[in-house]
């Protein structure tokens, strides 16, 4: 039990007692994953022109996402088995190798293999950072630590497109990956210096092959839904993917070697309702970032860079809201969880109204509500989950947050793609298809968000009862 006078924590306390180097390392590790997708999205037209791979834009993202989900799901287990220091350093070096392959590869096949390796290495780095937060920072500091991580994502959303744009405009897109490879090598070296040595890990710890196989099958099915060709096939593959992911949760509850904390499959527990809220709200939000820029360019006549920064306002709102409430304690965290879910759901509902009109101001406001919803609630959801776990499960509990976020992203992307393709988006972008996608992508996501609001209410209630 932490002393009463230390419950509030402070920013000075976050970096006290020698934690500053560790905190800096975690932020740098999170930066790699946060900036990667934003930078890559900006340079993909140049990649396609050089390597002749316009048809594989989706697979450049899908391959990275598949690697990230698999890695994130196993990061807690591997941290226990090999030790946090060695695991983080090796993951960063694998990410660097993937960057080097994407940078030097002569064709699209080698580029996509490099993206898969980046996803695996980057997913592990992000997952190990989550494990480090859960193990090495006391509970009173978690809202501020997660607020800082939110700030890293906000910075990446603002700086990432600019970095990619500069390299693309100069005609040297390959340098982007060399740039990130150098940073990954720096993370690997810093991990050996800054992370505690610990022991050699639990060499007897088994590997949850059954759960990992179900996750892989689920993510592959969801990813294939994007290119299935018809709405029926897309919906069917998405359903198969969701069923496989639910089967993984069921199996994990009964397995000897688990990927998720005990009770994660039940909405009657804090971890179960917390993970469900994270998954549902993340999935519901994906249409904003995936289809928002294209709709803005078509209906509002914005340039790609300007549209990107309009959509990035969501991340800025997430960052500002997260920093504004990080100091709250007592009953406020539970209130922020519920308030955040309400704001995020409202942002999705408003998006269905303003995107078809091409109103830049309306879209900015919708993105602000959506981002602020996550900023108000995410750190407190994470804190509630970790506080409800015994010490021996904090590592896998922290790593599971990465898995939940990534699988939610995959499911949400597939849902948005299936709906957009149904209204003709895949046949070409016009005013009519942009307006239809602007309505139905968000209308289809609204029930998912409402389900997330319901689980958030349960989480806030359970947290209040346990306080």
UniProtKB/TrEMBL annotation:
PROSITE patterns hit by this protein: MFS (PS50850)
Chief location bin: membrane
Ranges in coiled-coil conformation: none
Keywords linked to the UniProt accession: Membrane, Transmembrane, Transmembrane helix
Entry annotated with the keyword Transmembrane helix: yes
Membrane-topology annotation of the record: Multi-pass membrane protein
Protein location: Membrane
A Gene Ontology cellular-component term: plasma membrane
Every Major facilitator superfamily (MFS) profile domain range: 22-461
Pfam families cross-referenced by the UniProt entry: MFS_1
Xref: InterPro entries: MFS, MFS_dom, MFS_trans_sf
GO MF annotations in UniProt: transmembrane transporter activity
Gene3D superfamilies: MFS general substrate transporter like domains
Transmembrane segments: 20-44, 56-79, 86-104, 116-138, 145-163, 175-195, 207-225, 231-251, 272-296, 302-325, 337-355, 361-381, 402-425, 437-456
UniProt-listed PANTHER family: MAJOR FACILITATOR SUPERFAMILY, MULTIDRUG-EFFLUX TRANSPORTER RV1634-RELATED
Protein's recorded name: MFS transporter
């Amino acid at each position: 039990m932490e002393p009463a006078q230390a419950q509030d924590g402070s920013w000075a306390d976050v970096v006290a007692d020698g934690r500053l180097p560790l905190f800096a390392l975690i932020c740098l590790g999170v930066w790699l994953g946060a900036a990667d997708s934003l930078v890559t999205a900006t340079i993909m037209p140049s990649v396609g022109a050089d390597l002749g791979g316009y048809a594989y834009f989706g697979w450049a993202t899908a391959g990275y996402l598949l690697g990230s989900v698999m890695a994130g799901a196993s990061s807690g287990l591997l941290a226990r088995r090999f030790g946090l220091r060695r695991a983080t350093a090796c993951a960063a070096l694998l990410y660097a190798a993937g960057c080097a392959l994407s940078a030097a590869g002569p064709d699209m096949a080698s580029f996509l293999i490099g993206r898969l390796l980046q996803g695996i290495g980057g997913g592990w780095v992000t997952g190990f950072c989550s494990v480090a937060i859960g193990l090495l920072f006391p509970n009173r500091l978690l809202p501020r630590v997660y607020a800082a991580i939110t700030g890293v994502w906000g910075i990446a959303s603002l700086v990432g497109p600019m970095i990619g744009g500069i390299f693309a405009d100069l005609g040297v897109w390959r340098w982007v990956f060399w740039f990130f490879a150098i940073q990954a090598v720096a993370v690997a070296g810093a991990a050996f210096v800054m992370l505690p040595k610990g022991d050699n890990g639990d060499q007897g710890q088994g590997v949850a092959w059954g759960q990992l196989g179900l996750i892989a099958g689920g993510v592959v099915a969801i990813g294939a839904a994007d290119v299935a060709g018809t709405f029926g096939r897309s919906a069917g593959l998405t359903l198969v993917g969701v069923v496989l992911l639910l089967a993984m949760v069921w199996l994990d509850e009964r397995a000897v070697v688990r990927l998720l904390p005990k009770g994660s499959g039940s909405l009657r527990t804090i971890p179960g309702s917390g993970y469900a809220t994270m998954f549902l709200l993340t999935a519901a939000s994906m249409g904003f970032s995936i289809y928002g820029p294209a709709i803005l360019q078509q209906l509002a006549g914005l340039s790609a860079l300007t549209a990107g920064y309009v959509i990035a306002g969501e991340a800025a709102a997430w960052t500002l809201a997260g920093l504004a409430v990080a100091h709250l304690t007592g009953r406020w965290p539970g209130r922020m969880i519920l308030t955040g879910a309400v704001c995020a759901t409202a942002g999705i509902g408003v998006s269905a109204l303003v995107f078809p009109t091409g109103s830049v101001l309306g879209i900015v406001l919708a993105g602000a509500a959506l981002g602020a919803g996550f900023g108000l609630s995410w750190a407190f959801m994470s804190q509630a989950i970790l506080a409800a776990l015994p010490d021996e499960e904090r590592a896998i509990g922290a790593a599971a947050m990465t898995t939940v976020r990534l699988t939610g992203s995959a499911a949400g992307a597939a849902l948005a793609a299936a709906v957009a393709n149904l209204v003709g988006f895949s046949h070409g972008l016009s005013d009519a298809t942009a307006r239809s996608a602007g309505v139905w992508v968000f209308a289809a996501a609204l029930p998912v968000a409402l389900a997330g609001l319901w689980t958030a209410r349960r989480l806030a209630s359970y947290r209040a009862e346990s306080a």
